Amino acid sequence: MQTRFTAAQLEEPAMRASEGILRNCVHCGFCTSTCPTYLLEGDELDSPRGRIYLIKDMLENGRPATADVVRHIDRCLSCLGCMTTCPSGVHYQHLVDHARVHIEATYRRPWADRWVRRGLAAVLPYPARFRWLLALARAVRPLAPILPARIAAALRLVPTGRAVRPADSDRVSDPPASTRPRIAMLTGCVQSVLGGAANAAARRLLERMGCDVVDVDGCCGALTHHLGLAKETHRFADRFVAAVAATGAPLEAIVVTASGCGTHLKDYGFAFRDETDFASAAARVSELTRDITELIAARGLPAVVNPGRLRVAYHSACSLQHGQRVHAAPRELLAAAGFTVVEIPEGHVCCGSAGTYNMLQPELSRRLAERKLAQIAKLDVDVIAAGNLGCMTQLATGAARPIVHTVELLDWATGGPKPPGLR
């Protein structure tokens, strides 16, 4: 793609990076075949190619974002399926990230939109606030049919059970004194509240593998990053890098059980490449970050003592298959643990979760969830497994089978407790 950025514009690192991405695009349109919003809407501007044109025009001409541009960029899930499909290596992820920051800097959203987005950024990354919000949401959930669409959609996602705090026995308060391999585990923000079972399973499994595990608490910044809030994202990243450093050296890896967070952490090196006092530490976090299944596959699954006899529909989260390109490890580990892995038709298409997308774009998100659930309903399976809490929460709104984290099944097969809901 031909570009006409000025020399002055290209002095800005973000603009220079985006210009290089734009020049790689050859307009081929392969991306439209795997874009969820294009599959639903059939609108060129709701495809990666169409959004690339909008972003190019906005950035190249130094224009503030318009309502039309914002609408189409907001509809993007950042599922990154287009990057898997693109034959030219267009790094759409970094381009749309730049566009979102530009939108937040140049466009004043309607007051209701601002309130919702700022509210999400002020609550979700903070576990204590999120627990309070969950309690409130459960109390008002019966009123969902008469509430605004976005609020009603968010209430439908609220799990029926109580949020569980990690047990003291599941945590390590001080770095362990040991010569065994040391693994830092991101407990996360929303993950620490709703995904405690996955974190606990990961800890048990890693300790069974001979590793010492130390927790790194707090938000990695992924949620605010996808909202285009650059300052908030940098603040979370700064805290996370400091928390990793406080665990002491050396670390073999930083393990993540929420693949959306893992994708963001693996991109720290790029996102903060121009921060003089921060770049090397951020890049080190990216180098160390591993999805839990990556680390288990690399070190070897412990002895299987309770072979799985279940048929598992494996849902490959977009952040894992497209963002991190982790394909084989989860499937091979499940098979090695004795489970029969069943592929979901259209497995490359997003389920509609995408971080806060299911709250900000409830109609599109609902349609994608229904599409995914309809594909799963065709299968003869006992359980659905996924590696991302957002996907699990999204699919739980209509799945006829229990949904568990992949690591919970692996933990069970190698001596851990049976995940709730399994027969």
CATH topology of the largest domain: Rossmann fold
What is the CATH C level class of the largest domain, in words? Alpha Beta
Instruction: Output the radius of gyration.
Output: 21 Å
Tell me the β content: 5-15%
Low-confidence stretches: 162-169, 171-175
Tell me what the CATH architecture of the largest domain is: 3-Layer(aba) Sandwich
Number of domains: 4
Intertermini distance = 55 Å
- Give the rounded overall mean pLDDT: 90
Which geometry do the CA atoms define?
Answer: globular
How do the strands line up in the largest sheet? 2-1-3-4
Task: Tell how many strands the DSSP assignment holds.
Answer: 8
Topology, element by element:
Layout: H1 13-24, H2 36-41, H3 48-60, H4 67-74, H5 81-85, H6 92-106, H7 111-123, H8 127-140, H9 149-156, E1 182-188, H10 190-194, H11 196-208, E2 212-217, H12 222-226, H13 230-246, E3 253-256, H14 259-266, H15 268-271, H16 279-288, E4 289-291, H17 292-299, E5 311-315, H18 318-323, H19 328-336, E6 340-343, H20 357-360, H21 362-377, E7 383-386, H22 389-395, E8 403-405, H23 406-413
Parallel strand pairs: 1-2, 1-3, 3-4, 5-6, 5-7, 7-8
Helix pairs in contact: 1-6, 3-6, 11-23, 17-19
